[in-house]
């Protein structure tokens, strides 16, 4: 099995045959790691807290145990905005507390609404922008640069990035060759989590292909449990479903073309992906609550209803990224035993792995803001949040042992081992008006498709109309 785990490159990257051969080899190598890494069984407690060297000491490739040097900022104050809530926000505040302790600066977390670009626009219009914002889309970074809101990162932050990040993770934070984003958080968005008890009772096995997935779903249904929980009330998980099917089926080159709107959403490859999705979305017995119920199910509930109710939960499986673990923690299920995970199955010739992430972008250039960006680019910051769980860093010098369980350690190891060979979330690359706004664009169009999965042509037409408008306006 090979994996399309690759970052989106600029349209001008080389496409010669030797490059394609090396990328195929890289994908194959990455897939070997991922396939092994995601055979996720519980680890013995003897090895649970050991680093990569097996000695029990924290090891990090190349960091040498160094801590990042930060300036003294006594009396300085700054704000950082993000849409994070709950445990994610609470854990990030602990990272900010460490920055305060080391520098003497005071940092205020500003809760932002989605889409964050609109939130920032209102703040800037009112003359009170935050100093730093966590932007979840490369498209949003480009918008912030185009609007002249974003400031380039300085030499210290760039040095940390160069030391700790693969070139691919650096590149997606660039606009016109200049570094604006520091990707503090990553996500593996090609995972399907399942209720172990339900699978055992049904005699179901982890599927490797799309056809296997459909067969597994039927086996689960025959055992008396609805196979899938779909977070239809939130549009973004639906875009992730589509992207995994599309990447595996159409391939990485088409994926890039669609992400950049170089091919239209009326393309036959989109028709094929939507038709494939309809094999699950269009079968009401396969989706908890049917389409109507799914459209009322928000993402957190889609997870918790899969792991509550003993061996008779509302659903047996839920698709989404590694961050699902935060929601699983709210149930009695334990990751690695009661809750397990398998890679998104192969739909075409290759297995997809789509990544996402959040980047720190400076809006008010100051010594304090640059120092915070430097800190967030360091393994010091990411290691604090890694230990708290529900978080994945693209920083290659975060010790693997920092992650709190075997599942998270293996997902993190696979991400780092893949290096530059991955694809970034497609909707996050598009203009926010199309791929990142609740109730509009791709989010709304796929919600409508979930409601009526027979209308493939109509869905394509709506997607193309909305994409053309968003790309045309650049918003």
Automatic annotation (TrEMBL):
Family annotation (SUPFAM superfamilies): Periplasmic binding protein-like II
Keyword presence, Transport: yes
Superkingdom of this protein's organism: Bacteria
Compositional bias ranges of the Basic and acidic residues kind: 46-56
Record's keyword terms, sorted: Transport
Annotated stretches, region: Disordered: 1-26, 44-70
InterPro entries given in the database record: Bact_solute-bd_prot1, SBP
Aminoacyl-tRNA synthetase in keyword set: no
UniProt biased composition (Basic residues): 1-11
Record family assignment: Belongs to the bacterial solute-binding protein 1 family.
PANTHER family, alphabetized: ARABINOSE-BINDING PROTEIN-RELATED (PTHR43649), OSMOPROTECTIVE COMPOUNDS-BINDING PROTEIN GGTB (PTHR43649:SF29)
Protein name: Sugar ABC transporter substrate-binding protein
Biological source species: Streptomyces albiflavescens
Taxonomic classification: Bacteria, Bacillati, Actinomycetota, Actinomycetes, Kitasatosporales
């Amino acid at each position: 099995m090979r994996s399309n785990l690759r970052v989106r490159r600029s349209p001008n990257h080389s496409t010669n045959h030797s490059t394609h051969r090396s990328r195929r080899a890289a994908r194959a190598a990455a897939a070997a790691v991922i396939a092994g890494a995601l055979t996720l069984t519980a680890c013995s407690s003897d090895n649970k807290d050991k680093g990569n060297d097996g000695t029990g000491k924290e090891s990090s490739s190349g960091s040498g145990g160094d801590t990042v040097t930060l300036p003294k900022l006594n009396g300085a104050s700054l704000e950082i905005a993000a849409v994070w809530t709950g445990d994610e926000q609470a854990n990030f505040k602990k990272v900010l507390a460490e920055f305060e302790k080391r520098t003497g600066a005071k940092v205020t977390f500003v809760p932002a609404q989605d889409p964050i670009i609109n939130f920032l626009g209102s703040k800037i219009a009112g003359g009170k922008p935050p100093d730093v914002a966590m932007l979840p889309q490369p498209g949003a970074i480009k918008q912030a640069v185009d609007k002249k809101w974003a400031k380039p990162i300085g030499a210290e932050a760039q040095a940390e990035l160069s030391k700790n990040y693969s070139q691919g993770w650096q590149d997606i934070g660039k606009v016109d060759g200049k570094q604006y984003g520091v990707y503090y958080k990553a996500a593996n968005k090609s995972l399907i989590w399942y209720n172990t008890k339900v699978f055992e009772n049904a005699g179901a096995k982890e599927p490797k292909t799309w056809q296997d997935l459909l067969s597994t779903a039927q086996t689960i249904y025959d055992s008396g449990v609805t196979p899938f929980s779909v977070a239809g009330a939130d549009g973004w998980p639906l875009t992730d479903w589509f992207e995994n099917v599309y990447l595996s089926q159409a391939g990485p080159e088409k994926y890039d073309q669609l992400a950049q709107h170089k091919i239209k959403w009326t393309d036959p490859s989109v028709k094929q992906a939507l038709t494939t999705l309809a094999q699950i979305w269009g079968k009401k017995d396969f989706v908890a609550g049917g389409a109507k119920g799914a459209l009322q199910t928000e993402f957190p509930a889609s997870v918790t209803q899969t792991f509550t109710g003993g061996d008779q939960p509302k659903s047996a499986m839920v698709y989404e990224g590694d961050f699902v673990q935060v929601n699983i923690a709210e149930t009695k299920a334990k990751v690695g035993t009661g809750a397990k995970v398998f890679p998104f199955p192969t739909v075409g010739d290759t297995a997809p792995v789509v990544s996402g992430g959040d980047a720190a972008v400076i809006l008010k250039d100051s010594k304090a803001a640059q120092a915070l960006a430097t800190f967030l680019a360091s393994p010091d910051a990411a290691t604090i949040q890694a230990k708290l769980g529900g978080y994945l860093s693209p920083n290659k010098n975060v010790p693997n042992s920092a992650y709190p369980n075997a599942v998270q350690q293996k997902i993190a190891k696979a991400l780092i081992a893949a290096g530059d060979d991955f694809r970034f979330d497609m909707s996050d690359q598009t203009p926010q008006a199309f791929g990142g706004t609740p109730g509009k664009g791709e989010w709304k169009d796929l919600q409508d498709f979930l409601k009526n999965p027979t209308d493939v042509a109509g869905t394509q037409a709506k997607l193309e109309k909305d994409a053309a408008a968003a790309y045309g306006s650049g918003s």
